[in-house]
Amino acid sequence: MSQDTTTPSNDLGWDPTDPHGINPHDEAHQGHFIADWRMQIGILALLLFFTAMTVGFYNLEQWVETSFEIVLPKWINIVGAMSIATVKALLVAAFFMQLKYDKALNTFVMLFCLFCVGLFLTFTMIDLGSRHLVDEYKAPQITSGGTGIGLNSASADNDFAVVISPKINTGGMSIVHFARLNGNSKEHGLLYYREHDDEATFWAHFYDGHAVHRDELDEHDFFSQLGFGHHAPTSSSNASHPRHGLTPGLFSDVYPGAHATESHGNGH
User: How far apart are CA 15 and CA 140, in angstroms?
Assistant: First the structure.
């Protein structure tokens, strides 16, 4: 008796012995896309080409500025570099990440994430690009501050479009106290009031509302003279404030419990 080894047939039009077969009647069971090696090599060649184009675009900008002694607007560099980077990102996402052959939902999720990143960068650029509208000194690039480090740079060179911080010498003083002495475009500093023999007015305005301790620039102790000394905070469960001097009775020769012991011994 012979055994039938033929593949059983069915009405669905697909081979049940092939787990990766395609069922034309069921869209939920689709075959996995396998990228051809020639396509992958082609995409890789395109990515390398656009990488070389990015370097060439940068060198072209430098050559134009040097040869013609001009300064190209920053938007040219941004548009050129970001355009090339966008094309490279689309190639990687579409073919190497296979979003082109995947569900549209995955592409939507990726685009939504990119939109959120773009939204964050947009608000950041709006903030950086409009700070000079409030305070003019905030227009240059951000440099190290707080202790005066990085503020002793050379003056800006007119031959280059480089924003360099203004030459400020704090003399080793912190930038906070330096600004307090010299003031700004809106308010006069302590030196101005000292020149006009009106230092008390400066400290009255300075201590008003936030007087917690005497400032080290207050050489004549206007903190106490103006009556702000009583605002000095005491320690609590939320904050600890140092107090100077000895605690009364801390080093007393009499043991604190001696009187109580003596009283009990006398029968009181």
Answer: 70
Q: What is the DSSP string of 44-86?
A: HHHHHHHHHHHHHHHHHHHHHHHHHT----HHHHHHHHHHHHH
Is 265 a domain residue? no
Q: Are residues 206 and 166 in the same domain?
A: no
The per-residue pLDDT for range 140-151, each reduced to its tens digit, is 665 544 444 444
Residue at 28 is within a domain: no
Residue range 121-137: mean pLDDT, rounded: 83
Q: Is residue 74 part of a domain?
A: yes
What domain range is 159 assigned to? 140-173
Q: Report how many domains make up the chain.
A: 3
Closest CA to 205 of 218, 157, 216, 6: 218
> In terms of domains, do 51 and 123 share one?
yes
What residue has token string 């007087």?
Answer: 211
The residue ranges of DSSP E strands in 88-131, in sequence order, are none
Instruction: Write out pLDDT tens, residues 175-216.
Output: 788 888 888 878 888 888 888 888 888 888 887 766 667 888
Q: What is the DSSP letter of 131?
A: G
Q: Do 163 and 199 reside in the same domain of the chain?
A: no
Cα distance between residue 38 and residue 36, in whole Å: 5
Distance CA 168, CA 174 (A): 12
Contact predicate 133/141, CB 8 Å: no
